[in-house]
Please model this.
Amino acid sequence: MTSKVYVALRVKATPERAFQAFVGEIGAWWRPSLLFQTTPRPGVLSFEGGEGGRLIETRESGKVFEIGQIRAWDPPHRLVFAWRQANFPPDLHTEVEVTFEAVGAETRVAVEHRGFHEVPAGAARHGWPDQLLLVRLADFWRGQVAAFGGRLE
Amino acid sequence: MADKFPSLSSAVCYVDPREALAWLEQAFGFEVSMLIEDGEGALAHSEMRFGESIVMVGSEWSADHKSPRSIGGKNTQTVHIQIDTDIDVHCERARAAGAEIIMEPATQFYGDRTYRCRDPEGHIWTVAQTVETVTREQMEAETGLKITGWA
Model:
């Protein structure tokens, strides 16, 4: 079994527009977090390529950090990518799945982040036990999805 | 954007919270907005959203948190759902999902049409829709009650 953090929110857009904005405009709506920082100094996130591509963070210096490879690419319904922070051990890759489901004129966007409990003691865990870590991770994603929804208003 | 946490919300205990999440969606149209499972797959926390409100759906996580199913069907508080359309349709949807309707929809002296039901674990829910505008004077005349706090 693996841990799972799931958050969902309705956004005012079609699944097509929502998917396009999620992957195409992530650099504009993403809010870097101190608690779940992918790199020590936040850069700009972008999805590079579709199927077989990756989610990267480009730092001010021009250096590129790979957050994770894209594992499923099914626009405008579903997207799965690996999630690795620079402060993770090298072999640890958690996984994020994003789904887009039409509900009337809106779209229900759901993010599921799996496997974060495997993050070992150290920088990425902030000394937190599993339960607190996962609650904070859920808050983090709730903020990201809200910021994403704000862009579509 | 309904992303803020409301000032007041309820946490409801179930023997089987997973079953409850599915049932509450089917019966009342609540949507899961947050779910946290630990490394063993056990449900640690969940929230459902309905309009601008949320309800937390949890397990019997301490000796003092019980589902009505575990305590002879008793309720010590109930959750109220206020909707603005089709109360009778709402009731039929809940009934079809397996709710026990303990009071059929009926229009009350204060202008709301209300029904009351029990969910599969025994939680009592009330549901209402305002269908008539009633003044304080009308209510006092009808009931003999002294009413304050009603515009």
Observations:
- The mean pLDDT of chain B is 92.
